[in-house]
Amino acid sequence: MDQLPLLFEGFAQALTPMNLLWVLIGALLGTAVGVLPGLGSSMAVALLLPVTFSLEPTAAFIMFAGIYFGGLFGDSTSGILLNTPGNSSAIASTFEGHRMARSGRAAKALATAAIGAFIGGMIATTMVVFFAPTLVRLATVFGPAEYFALAVFAFLAISAVVSESVIRGLAALGIGLALALVGIDGPSGTARFTLGMPQLFDGISVVVITVGLLALGEVFYVCTRIHRDPVATRTPTGGRARLTLADFRRALPAWLRGTAFGAPFGLIPAGGSEVPTFMAYGTEKHLAKRSNDTEFGTTGSIRGLAAPEAAANATAGTAMGALLALGLPTSATAAIMLAAFQQYGMQPGPLLFERSGDLVWTLLASLFIGLVILVLINMPFAGVWAKLLTIPRHYLYAGITVFSMLGVYAISSSVIDLWVLVGIGLIGVIMRRYNIPLAPVLIAVILGPMAETELRRALAVSEGSLGILVDSPITITLYLALATALAVSGVQHLRHRAQKVR
Amino acid sequence: MSITHSHPVPSTSAPQRRRFRTGRSEFVVVALLYVLAVCFTIGTVSMHVLGTAVPGPQFFPIIVCALLYATASALAVDILRHPRLPDAEPHPGHGDFSTDMLRDLGDVGDERTDARPAPMSPRWTTYSDWRTLAQVLGAAIVFIVLLDPVGWILCAALLFWVVARALGSMRPVFDIGVALLFSSVIQLAFSAGLGLPLPSGFVGGMF
């Protein structure tokens, strides 16, 4: 148990007034972008990355920790009160959550969601504290072949297993890998695809790509839809979160079941909390059917909301563990966090705990503090947060456009970056229009260079023999698991295609 | 973002004549992928390779090019076989997640949420509103060109004003004030406060 003293040291670092202020700012920002549909924590972190460069890394990461969890608190608020989930991670909790609000139990629903998110996040973060050293030890036996297998697993799981269309997912992966190739090749020093422009020698900045795809791309997409899509009628129900002890007892098993679904998914690159939230929802639905719970599906069951909400934050919590200890981003948001570490010259993975141990433990401590602050600002003020939806959309998106330009210009005061940003924004709008997933692009851009380096390193050791890639139990397990997931998802796609033809 | 919708969407394709093009505009993406693939192929072949390490810097780009050609061709075949009109069906995360998979995992029946895109309407010639996008894109281009000579405050205010107007703001004069306030606050907070180098342009010379 040598983690506990380290964690307490982290708390001591994080509990200074200045750092508490950063957590609070992060929590407020995160909740805000979570409430607003179309925006998410990943976009907020990407936009803030360049402008926080003058802060010291600890302060920046403490703020990012608040944003990271805050997005998941906010997205269910608008889902419950307005039936408009702020993000796809809140769809599953919106079903029963909004039913509860409609039947006059909005206060109860908001409290269930906030406490569920708190419990899921707390348990998962505690697990990270205790299991991170084990993960780190596991990672130290990883060689180039294992890291390459991990990257391939992440690439294919996100682009082919969970995405709507396998072809479009793989196309997105290709675009991301191609963007990551631009720049000087590290091992050999060869300039690749730079068109002879010295500005491109360092490659296309990850910040430019993420801001282009997630922020400017979203603004452009809103432009193509805002005068076309019907205006959703929003009838805000007043919100002050309250929960009686009896309700707490009823929801508790669901919170714990949800956490149990969510926590393992943080370690698997399945794109985030969507899959576990739906699994948690499905389980509660089955259990309600078995126990003849008439509330479920009619007036809204507290358990049907509690489970997915806890699952979402449990996934986010353990995803942080996989990111810090293995350097493996399991969702687009985690990938942006990884990019944030790289911007500060740190590489998440086993070495991070050795080299920047104090930062890691301060970050973990601020995750706990962030959760407490989030529950405090979400329980009493849920109705205030829902009012964010009344901000005129034209000002909101005008502000995001200007802020994207500011962020990208701030990286290196380069006008070329701004042209690249607009180009990537256009790719982003085309991809949204045809429902080509964005997550594979982000994962590929961020893990692509690592995959290439490790592949070349492995093949250099084996002198070109491909056998080394499947030479150890770890790689064989990873590839077998991937093959199984691909097969299951393939059967799933074919079965639904057959049903639709009929 | 709905998972299912209980009200059937009225069929909108009836009054329109179905042409070969209908539902196949996604060929834009095929073209984009091919252009990317050809550019990267040329770049790989003409690469001035340093060092003699095997596998060298051309090894991974070859794999990526192969992936781009393969997905572009597969996508072309898919569009030819199944043209897709914009629908009001749910696409969680713009295609990041398979609706069928989530529906099976969650045993979802008739649950729904109300955020849902509009299906193609006969009132429009194109599904997407390219005119509004062109206005915003134009403003972004003007912003980039004028940023260095004119300076942050005026350029950012212009960009803000045009985007707000294009997205439906009805108060142009009031917006000038909002835009100037927004850009000035950013200049103060980030340039004076955090030390980001924002170009002051000719306005800066007046102070």
What does this structure look like?
The complex is a heterodimer of chains A (502) and B (207). Chain A has 502 residues and is mostly helical. Chain A has one domain (3-232, 241-501). Helices cover 73% and strands 1% of the residues of chain A. Chain A has 20 helices and 2 strands. Chain A has helices at residues 3-14, 17-35, 41-51, 57-82, 91-102, 106-140, 144-161, 166-181, 206-225, 245-265, 274-290, 302-326, 332-343, 350-355, 357-378, 382-386, 393-412, 415-433, 439-461, 473-501; strands at 183-184, 191-192. In chain A, strands 1-2 form a two-stranded antiparallel sheet. The longest helix of chain A is centred in the N-terminal third of the chain and has 35 residues, at 106-140. The radius of gyration of chain A is 22 Å and the shape is globular. The model of chain A has no long low-confidence stretch (mean pLDDT 90). The termini of chain B are far apart. Helix content of chain B is 54%, strand content 0%. The model of chain B is unreliable at 4-15 (pLDDT under 50). In chain B, helix 1 (27-45) packs antiparallel against helix 2 (59-81). Chain B has helices at residues 27-45, 59-81, 99-106, 130-150, 152-166, 172-193, 201-204. Chain B has 207 residues and is mainly α. Chain B has a domain at 130-204. Chains A and B meet through helix 5, helix 8, strand 2, helix 9 and helix 11 of A and helix 1, helix 2, helix 3, helix 4 and helix 5 of B.
H-E order of chain B? HHHHHHH
- N-to-C SSE string of chain A, H for helix and E for strand: HHHHHHHHEEHHHHHHHHHHHH
Work out the helicity level of chain A.
over 70%
Number of strands of chain B: 0
